[in-house]
Write a structure and sequence with these properties.
The complex is a heterodimer of chains A (326) and B (345).
Chain A (H helix, E strand, L loop, with lengths): L6 E11 L4 E12 L4 E5 L6 H8 L7 E10 L2 E2 L5 H10 L1 E4 L3 H4 L6 H13 L3 H14 L5 H4 L9 H13 L5 E5 L7 H18 L2 E6 L2 H7 L2 E6 L2 E7 H6 L4 H9 L5 H5 L32 H5 L5 E2 L5 E2 L6
Parallel strand pairs in A: 3-8, 3-9, 6-7, 7-8
Antiparallel strand pairs in A: 1-2, 1-4, 4-5, 9-10, 10-12, 11-12
Helix pairs in contact in A: 4-5, 5-7, 7-8
Chain B lengths: L16 E13 L11 E13 L3 E5 L6 H8 L7 E6 L2 E2 L8 H7 E4 L13 H11 L5 H14 L16 H13 L5 E5 L7 H18 L2 E5 L3 H7 L2 E6 L2 E7 H6 L4 H8 L38 H5 L6 E2 L5 E2 L4 H12 L1
Parallel strand pairs in B: 3-8, 3-9, 6-7, 7-8
Antiparallel strand pairs in B: 1-2, 1-4, 4-5, 9-10, 10-12, 11-12
Classes of the chains: A alpha/beta (326), B alpha/beta (345).
């Protein structure tokens, strides 16, 4: 195995066409994921985390486009690949699962066929062989009675079962990277636990790296080894997952960690007022000058309002983008 | 003094209780099969007892499909119960004439989950807040204006924002409008149905703080429905856990979260990811069973790691209230608690 990381994103900029011009929906996005690693991208709606994922997998469509930067997968630049080469990469080496399996699955095709398709399209198998592999794939995501379930349509399955089918499709060709965009947000917490454990175990067995995207910092910190927090189109902090909760460095991350009522905190600390993050998330067309968090930040000074902070290396390990970081 | 009010037994009216729900059942007949099969009945709620004291926040938790929202709709008078009795502020509100709908609306209100879907996009905030007042007989223009302005201030908005439309507000502000709409008639009980789960994470604390503040300043009582146990723990005084149309555990918040007695409550709590540890999540086998075809015995038994023959055979155990007010519907809760105690020693 070589020393090149599996995925390297360097200074990625994503443009949004708003008719009268273009605005950067995300910019200066850089991170790397090693083989078999688990990496989390956390942020609120509109922060740019999902479009970053779509860019990686070549699914950005108008009005969004890549405005600059480099995406290197297994050492090769992939941001300008032809549609055919992208299709080949997608499914085969990079796969993705989405938040709502009901809209991601084809409602008029049996789930077995949707899994088998992967083997036919990407591995050149016959349908007969592919159908057999589909049963195995369903068994591997622990769907009971897989030989009967392959004939079911998505609407006949529960939300948890549908997400299992999505995982079976995503992992069918043994990808090197699985992108999971809010994979359990639509599910109940008990089902979430099962899906997360399934994903975690299958990827660990097969050496598949995970890029997990979520608004739920607690979940991502539990699943991933490293976490990057995005705010208004930029990564503001990247840390080991335990550090980000114990000693967050960026004021936004500090605010997030302090503002969420966590199980056990009332028993330990009493019911105080939750620490609020003032203000609202800025709109893409209206990102503030300087540090984009400055209008909501209690520690903001003059420099924060005018100069966008660069990325600082933290002594404890990790990166932060703040003029006054802890 | 001990805390009764949890058991199914009839008790005398209690001034301290703002709401009491006794043996509530909501069944939906689904008609026969296409080929003339027998009529099927979906028992969405099947024998629920709840009580809410003045000034209290009762957390109602459980997976989707457990019947939480059906209970809420019944209390609001929006769903006719199949069986059971609901008393709001000393008045029986089940089996009432249609005229009492308005009285009930003045007493019980709801804050919905999604402030994007629950506000009329073509009405200004003023109109949204004025309409209920007019319907309920407030006609003096100055009074209407006063109450709208006061309410907007209560929820942290400015009175001059009243002439704007919902799309001019952020998600958090919209939820403030949703809260103002619920409170404009001065209700006594507010049902909060997932009030923060549609909001951005950095906004949630603002709304949770606001709801708790309003509860104290306006003397409200809450039923807090949420799947986020962190939020429920933070806000609730007592917590009721629902599973497949029934309450399986009910008690003081600290008891529920520190000494959960029902295996389902334990499973819910154990499934919450621990952000500080890279540890596997505790899993519970399988999905919520089909409510059209509930399992024999205890409804949780197919998923329960403690289930024994008795749990699968005997019809669901009754909700037994212990002297400390903690109520559990489980054949084996005492044994399990004993086992765990001996293990941890």
């Amino acid at each position: 195995m070589t020393g090149t990381p599996l995925l390297e994103v360097e200074d990625l900029k994503l443009d949004l066409d708003i008719g009268s011009g273009r605005v950067a929906a995300a910019e200066g996005v850089s991170f790397r994921i090693d083989r078999g690693e688990t990496f989390g991208l956390v942020g609120e709606s509109g922060c740019g985390k999902s479009i970053t994922a779509l860019a990686l997998i070549g699914l950005l469509r108008h009005p969004l486009s890549i405005g600059g930067g480099v995406i290197r997968f297994d050492g090769k630049e992939i941001q300008h690949l032809s549609a055919a080469r992208q299709r080949d990469l997608r499914g085969n080496r990079i796969a993705m699962i989405f938040q709502e399996p009901m809209t991601a699955l084809n409602p008029v095709s049996p789930v077995g066929r949707q899994i088998a398709e992967m083997f036919v399209l990407h591995k050149g198998k016959s349908w007969r062989e592919a159908n057999r592999l589909a049963v195995e794939a369903l068994a591997s995501v622990r769907v009971p009675a897989p030989e009967r379930r392959v004939k079911d349509y998505p609407h006949q399955l529960s939300g948890g079962m549908r997400q299992r089918v999505m995982i079976a499709i995503a992992l069918a060709c043994g990808p090197d990277l699985l992108i999971a965009d809010e994979p359990t947000t639509a599910l109940d917490v008990t089902v979430q636990a099962e899906i997360i454990e399934l994903m975690r175990n299958l990827c660990a067995e097969r050496g598949t790296a995970i890029l997990m995207i979520s608004h739920d910092l607690g979940l991502v910190a539990n699943v991933c080894r490293r976490v990057a927090v995005m705010y208004a189109g930029r990564i503001v902090e990247e840390r080991g997952s335990a550090d980000i909760f114990r000693a967050p460095s960026h004021p936004y991350t500090q605010g997030l960690v302090a503002s969420l009522p966590r199980l056990g905190s009332r028993a330990a600390l009493g019911r105080g007022r939750l620490q609020e993050i003032a203000g609202v998330v800025p709109a893409i067309t209206n990102f503030p000058e300087g540090c984009r968090f400055n209008p909501r930040c209690a520690q903001a000074t003059e420099i924060c309002r005018t100069v966008a902070p660069g990325t600082d290396l933290l002594e404890a390990g990790g990166l932060v983008r703040c003029h006054h970081h802890a | 003094m001990h805390e009764p009010q949890n058991g199914p037994a009839e008790e005398r009216p209690d001034d301290d209780l703002i709401l009491s729900v006794r043996d509530l059942a909501v069944h939906f007949p689904l008609g026969g099969g296409l080929l003339g099969g027998g009529k099927r009945v979906l028992r969405a709620v099947d024998g629920v007892d709840l009580s809410l004291r003045r000034g209290e926040c009762l957390g109602l938790v459980g997976e989707s499909g457990s019947g939480k929202s059906t209970v809420a709709l019944s209390i609001l008078g929006l769903l006719a119960p199949t069986r059971g009795r609901i008393m709001v502020d000393g008045q029986v509100v089940t089996n009432r004439q249609s005229g009492d709908r308005k009285a009930l609306a003045r007493t019980v209100q709801i804050v919905f989950q999604d402030p994007y879907a629950s506000l009329n996009p073509r009405q200004t905030v003023r109109r949204t807040l004025e309409d209920p007042l007019r319907v309920h007989g407030v006609t003096a223009k100055s009074e209407i204006e006063d109450r709208v302005a006061t309410m907007l201030r209560h929820v942290g908005l400015r009175p001059e924002q009243a002439d704007r439309y919902p799309h001019e507000f952020s998600g958090g502000q919209r939820q403030r409008i949703g809260i103002a709409r619920a409170l404009i008639l001065n209700p006594k009980i507010v049902i909060c149905d997932e009030p923060v789960s549609a909001l951005d994470v950095s906004i949630r604390a603002q709304i949770i703080n606001l709801l708790l503040e309003l509860k104290d300043t306006l003397g409200l009582s809450y039923i807090m429905i949420s799947h986020d146990l962190g939020v429920v723990e933070h806000m609730s005084d007592r917590v009721a856990v629902m599973y497949l149309g029934r309450i399986v555990e009910n008690g003081d918040w600290r008891e529920i979260f520190e000494r959960p007695a029902h295996p389902y409550t334990r499973a819910l709590i154990a499934a919450i990811p621990d952000p500080l540890h890279h540890a596997p999540l505790a899993t519970t086998g399988g999905d919520l069973p089909n409510p059209l075809n509930p399992p024999d015995g205890c409804a949780f038994s197919p998923r329960c790691r403690y289930a024994e023959a008795v749990c699968r055979r005997e019809p669901g155990p009754v909700l037994e209230t212990r002297p400390d007010g903690h109520a559990v519907r489980c054949w084996r809760s005492e044994e399990i608690a004993g086992q765990e105690a001996s293990v941890s020693v």
